[in-house]
Amino acid sequence: MLNNLRFRENKSYFLVFLLILIVTILGLSLDLINPDAALYGTISKTIYENNDFINLYSLGYDWLDKPHLPFWLTAISFKIFGVSNFAYKIPGVLVFFLGIWMTYKFTKENYNKKTAFIAAIILATATHSVISNFDVRAEPYLTGFIIASLYYTDRFLKLNKFYYLILACLFSAFAIMTKGIFALIPIVFALFGELVVKQNWKQLLNPIWFIAAFLIIIFILPEIYTLYIQFDLHPEKIVFDKTNTSGIKFFFWDSQFGRFFNTAPIKGSGDKFFFFHTILWAFLPWGILFYIASFFKIKQNIKKVAKKQEFYTIFGSLFTILIFSLSKFQLAHYTNIVFPFMAIIVADFIFKLEKHYQKSLKSYRVILWFQNILGLLLITYLFFIIKPEINYFFFVLLIASFFLFKVIRNSKENKSLKLFFFSCLIFLNIYSFLFTHFYPTILEYQGGVTAARFVNNNYANKGSLIDNKQKHFGFEFYLKEPLKRVDSLQISKEKDRIFFVDKNEYQLLLRHNINFKIIKEIDNFRVSKINSKFLNSNTRKTALDKKYLVQIK
Q: What are the distances in angstroms from CA 362 to CA 350, 409, 477?
């Protein structure tokens, strides 16, 4: 009886969550995008095949870039489910949904249940959240671990129970073992801002934080140990074109501060306003609202701080964005880690909109309707320009969304919340279109994936690559049997083996007078860098390059 009452009261929220789950599942079976996701997949696959959880290898060589935890979790998933798209993606997606749950719990404790539902939905429907659950890399893991750490930190401060601190430190350690110590930036700024604004000097100067730091160090010892075994114990290894490379130093300094100051082996270039304008599309359809909501939260507390409000989220999000903006190493998906914080700020704004922000109601409606219409026009344009093969499941979801909208329209929610739900439905159907039509169309042109499947079906156990560090990650990941790498000077000895080569490698075979025949020419495009020529079905062929499967005679 009580459960039925709760369902009726929150029916709109539960039904939207069901649609979120369906859309997420649609992305699980799609191929990994080359190079990044396919790279992570090959590293995890190598762990799985070698049963070696200490050493990370890519292209047959020692790999020093990201920490181990996502690769460990993915390799374990491969052991359970076998190597597949689903098995690669499911650990990250599950951690992300943990992040949704923790966002709900944190918001419920600091605001109310309805705001918590809204925050969870905002996090789950933000554009880059959805894309990152399909093109899984480090971001879904970080999103879940960071908000979980913040939730348990808040619980510790309020209830003073030590096991909450242990959990906070554990999830902080998980974040560090996913991306490095800079993953602590949102947590540290969130905690610091909360305590300083409320002048809680006793907690700020509490020696317990030294214990917390010690616990985090204990929890990240597996990462430190593996780096020591693979790199510090072997100074003779050539990494980044030099010997005496310390994995531990790289983990604590070069991969973090080195990238920030652009002095690390892996360099970048940055724009100080990059993240501020990236949020507008990465956090769609809530990006503009985030800036408006942040402005009001700051304005309300600039003269007199409301002690009952929480300030973790405003400090954790804005200061993280500011710090990352000062870095030279910038990528759009870096913003994902503070999406839970941003979602909570926007959720509070939407919940209070009709009572406290009446003057902003018109702007709120204009922003959401403009984005909704623009989104619908975009997928209509894409449908006609890419000319995908029709997937009728998309239209089933479209019809289901129509009936869901009727349920929401007849609910007791206010007009602002009804528009919020309508925007969620619009964007969930946009994502559904991407997963049923857009991505299936463009992913067909990942040459390495096509080549691997052809070899699997026709030349089992013969798949090979020239050992020259070419990034054929898709071919390596989707090849069922273990890959053989062959030195370019030894290729002529590999009779009957099938090599996947690009144009440069094809020319190398000709220069070395290798006797071979072309088994298959394969159309290829780097789909992580799409352009208008490729999207347009009429000009797509002119945007493609060729890759080849060749057999050594």
A: 13, 19, 50
